[in-house]
Design a protein that fits this description.
about 70 residues; alpha+beta; Macrophage Migration Inhibitory Factor; two-stranded parallel ribbon; two-stranded antiparallel ribbon; 2 helices; about 25% strand
Amino acid sequence: MPYINVKITDEGVSNEQKQAIIRGCTELMVKVLNKNPATTFVVIEEVSTDNWGIGFDQVTELRKRASQT
């Protein structure tokens, strides 16, 4: 019974994209580990870019800097 936790930033991911993530993760478990899709759980957590850091910076600040260049 796989449990897959996907964490992404909360930057406008559509419902269709989330469905594709769930489908893709489940298909991977079926293909690689021969798991039953009926008992494969996928949870998507959306994290604020203020709460996601890369290196020394918040993703919010990194996005601001990138848009200024």
